[in-house]
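Practice problem: predict the structure.
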Amino acid sequence: MWINFAGQFQKGLTALPLKTYQAGETVLANGSRTNELLILKNGSVAVVRQGIEVARVTDPGAIFGEISALLDCPHTADVRALTTSQFHVAHPAALQDPAALFYVAAILARRLDRTNQTLVELTNQIEVGEPRSAIASTIEKMKGLLVASGATLGHVGYSYNRFA
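Answer:
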């Protein structure tokens, strides 16, 4: 079933307009509303929260703006282009398309699953008294999981890069 939706979503991407951002430009600003879903076609971006870079995303298919679109709230992080980066631009109405909805749902479900796994890992580290450095590393991993929307499905961020 995933492959069917993935193929449908991939076909839909080619029809979407493209937006290009140069290195240093802000793609999404914390607190703003763009009413857009941005799907990375190529390039490299940093996700920044409260002045701290929490993720770097380079994988095609990474989605940005999905939480804002789904929850009808402002963006919760800054996304900045590190290199010239191109994005397919979709509007939240695209989430009415079953393929797009399934794609975004899969990304969010994978992020939640990986965050839950990392929480269990962190809890175990604390219970057995692992060194502070190991715990800090797991906390950083969790931060990336909670904020990022890039990388490959099953890793931090959760895109599905067949859509490049």
